[in-house]
Design goal:
Strand content: 15-25%
Number of strands: 12
Number of helices: 8
CATH architecture of the largest domain: 3-Layer(aba) Sandwich
Shape: elongated
Radius of gyration: 26 Å
CATH class of the largest domain: Alpha Beta
Number of domains: 2
Protein name: Two component transcriptional regulator, winged helix family
Structural class: alpha/beta
Strand order of the largest sheet: 2-1-3-4-5
Pfam families: Response_reg (PF00072), Trans_reg_C (PF00486)
Keywords: DNA-binding, Phosphoprotein, Transcription, Transcription regulation, Two-component regulatory system
CATH superfamily of the largest domain: Response regulator
Helix content: 25-40%
GO molecular function: phosphorelay response regulator activity; transcription cis-regulatory region binding
CATH topology of the largest domain: Rossmann fold
Amino acid sequence: MNIVVIEDHDALREVTVAALSGKGHHVVGLESAEALPEQKDISHIDIMLIDLNLPGESGFSLTQRIRRIYPDIGIIIVSANTEAEHKRQGYDHGADIYLTKPASLDEIHAAIQALSRRLKPAPLNAQQIELHLQSLSLRKQGRSVPLNQHETALLQALLRAPDQRLETWQLLEVISDGQHDYSKASLEVLIVRLRKKIASLGTTQNPIRSIRNHGYQLCEPITVPN
């Protein structure tokens, strides 16, 4: 992350810059708001740590100005003032996070990590579950769940279907191997097991919805990588 620390206390600024640089961030330390215009390409900054009690332009004023001109920059206010009204003003002026001094370096870094996740969420395809046909598995963000051939065939058929919905008889045909006749009960057992496997990768909904007197519909976004 590209971070700017605006703090007029020299020792505190230097310690903060060194600590965050040690975490792998690119960090610049400034002693006042007036020093900020001297920095080039300010739009590439990801997060700013702003002390409120600055010489010259106040931290409140700077926060409001940055939020107006660069709405995508994350702003963390760091202040010794612990009053609720003061915190409210900080958020009203555009702060994303308000930390009170003395804030530990671990707390500051945790705030930066939390804010960075909001500013730069993982790409959509990284958040989605992937169906890997060759390995017969579901994968999401480094996690993998094995599937059997019937489970893989069911998912593939639902993904190809209009509205990702199929009738019961269509799904029974998908899993039929010509040697065994599968019943509605056995299909339901298979669906329940498949739901659990999909849900184990993290879902906020029922991944396969049962449609009364019709069949089933896949509700969880799943992609098949090329």
